[in-house]
Every structure is written in structure tokens, then in C-alpha cells.
Model the fold of this input.
Amino acid sequence: MSHDRDLFANFERMRREIDQLFGDVFERTGFRGAGFAPAVDVLYTDDPPRAIVRADLAGVLIDDVDLEIRGRQLIITGERRVEQGEGCLYQQIEIEHGPFRRAVELGADVVAEEAKAGYEDGMLVVEVPLARRDQSVRRVPIEEGEQG
Done:
């Protein structure tokens, strides 16, 4: 019995260490407790300059999805509902269901007001134009100080 108790204590300690190690990762991705974090791809194109984020949301109704841009962060939230079939008995359930939240860090400043999104075949595609760098040159006059 004592061996089983030691094994359980070691397992609990290991679980706490893993939680501490990965806790900040789960917080950044938005995955915490119930629910799941959908897979995303992020790419950049230069004609015109924009960020493109693709999120795999198969089986999610578009009415159950919200998008928000905060600075350089695209936040995708929603829920994949469990299909309730009358007279169904599941043998196994592998598709993740429940609420989700993904916070995607973009690698450049964006023009949030011009973002657009589409949803087809379970794939959400968000295009966000990149902010142009200010290339203007301004001469700065140097004022001569009064000498003593």
C-alpha cells in the first residue's frame, strides 16, 4: 500500500510541475479547462501587404464564432456544439467540443478597420491589412541658442 501512495504522490507532484511549466502557454493560447483550442495557420503576403489567419473550425456554426482585433492580437472565440441525435449511443468521442478561445499574436501592426473574414468548408479565413510604415521624411530645423 505504501508503494501505491508514493507512486500517487509522485504523480501529483509531476502533474503540478507540468501545470506550472505549461500554464503560461495555455493562457496565451486561450485554452484553459473545458473546451479546446482550434488549430491556426498564420501567413503574410505582400501584394497587398496583409496577414492571413486560417482557423480550422470544422463543425462550428458561423453564428457561434466571434472575432476581435486588439492591437496586434486577433482573438477568435466560439463554441463547437455536440450533435445530439435521438436514439444515439456513442462508442467513442474524439472530436473536441465546447467553448474555444484563440489569441493569435500577429507579427506586425495592422489596420483593424479594414479586416475581413470568410468561412467556407469549416475553415475561417481572416485577412488583416498590415499598417504601412511612415516613410515620410521631415527636416527638423535647428534653432540657434542665444549665447551669453
The CA atoms of residues 142 and 148 lie 18 Å apart. The domain at 34-129 is CATH 2.60.40.790 (Immunoglobulin-like).
